[in-house]
Amino acid sequence: MRTKRYSLPEGMRYATLTERKEYYLNEFDIKRVAEWFYRVKGRIVFAVIMGRHTRIFRHKYKEDAGTTILIDEYKGFEDVKAQILEFLPEAVYYDRNVYDEEGKILGQELAFDLDPENLTCPIHGTLADKMQRRQGLGFCELELKMVKEETARLYEELKKSFFNMKIVYSGRGFHIHVFDEDTYNWKYKARKEFAKKLKTEGFLIDEWVTSGGMRLIRLPYSLHGMVSRIVIPLEAKELESFNPVSDKRCIPKFLRLS
Predict the structure, then answer these.
(1) Fold adopted by 17-248
(2) Which of 75, 85, 100, 130 registers the highest number of CB atoms within 10 A of its CB?
(3) What is the pLDDT of residue 1?
C-alpha cells in the first residue's frame, strides 16, 4: 500500500488507520454534525473515500479503496458515525443535494471551494508544474496563506449577494457555504453563470463545485486523513489569524500527544 507522499506543511501528514479510529471513536463530535444540518428540510446523503490518495485502508475493503461509497441508508447520525468507524476513511463528505424520503431532489446547497493547487505558488509554480512532479495535491505554508487570503476576499464579495454564510477550513483549503433559502432553488444554469462571473472577476474558485457538477463537499468535524487535520467551521473574523499548521482546534489529539 505504499505510495508517493505529497509534500505538505510541517506537522501535516497522513493519518494511520489506528489514528483514524481513535479520532472517530473519541473526538468526532456527531452532535455538532447534527447541528450543522439543523436548517436542512430533507434527507442528507453522506459519502466516504477510504484510501484513494493515501493508499491507507482496511484490507477487506481493498477493492473499493479508491471509490466513493455512499451512506444513504442510516437510522440517525449515530448510525452514520458507526458506518464511518466501519470504513475508517481518509475522507468523509456529504451530498449538497437535499432529498425527500423517496429520493427526489428538493434543492441543493450553494458552496464555493478554494484549494491551494489552483494558485500559482512563487516557489512551487502552477498546478501543471506540480503535476509534473506528481505533487498535484501537495502544498506549502505559503500556498495555505495565499488561499486563506483568497477566501477572505471572496467572502467579502459574496456578502454583497448573500446573507447567511459559513466558512469552513477543509483540511487543505477553505469552503464557503451559503444557507440563504432561495439559493437552494437555483438551477444549474444560474449556479454556473454565477461561478463564471466570479472567475471572470479574478476570484479563485472551483467552478465544478459551485455549479453543482461536483455535489460532494467535506463534512465539518470530520478528519482530513491526508493532512491529519479536523475540518472546522470558522467565523469570518477568525480567518485572518487562523493558522491550521498550529491551531489546536483543528489538530487531532493523536498529533498533540505525540
Answers:
(1) DNA primase, PRIM domain (3.90.920)
(2) 130
(3) 40
pLDDT band at 258 (very low <50, low <70, confident <90, very high): low
Q: Angle at Cα 170 formed by Cα 168 and Cα 172, nearest 5°?
A: 135
* Mean model confidence pLDDT for the chain: 93
pLDDT at position 122: 84
- Domain boundaries, given as residue ranges, for the chain: 17-248
Q: Where are the alpha helices (DSSP H) in 37-76?
A: none
Contacts of 86 (CB under 8 A, 6+ apart): none
Contacts 24+ apart (CB under 8 A), 153-160: 153/203, 154/112, 154/114, 154/198, 154/203, 154/204, 154/205, 155/236, 155/239, 157/198, 157/201, 157/203, 158/112
Residue 99, helix vs strand vs coil: strand
Alpha helices (H) in the chain, listed in sequence order: 17-26, 30-36, 77-87, 127-132, 141-158, 188-200, 207-211, 253-256
Task: Give the residue among 180, 187, 236, 224 at the shortest CA–CA distance from 19.
Answer: 224
Q: Output the nine-digit C-alpha cell for 13.
A: 501528514
Rg (CA), the chain: 18
**Kind of pairing between the strands at 97-99 and 105-108:** antiparallel
What integer pLDDT is reported at residue 153 of this predicted model?
97
| Residue 138: per-residue pLDDT | 79
Beta-bridge partners for 108: 97
Cβ proximity of 156 and 198 under 8 Å:
no
CA distance 71 to 73: 6
What pLDDT was estimated at residue 155? 98
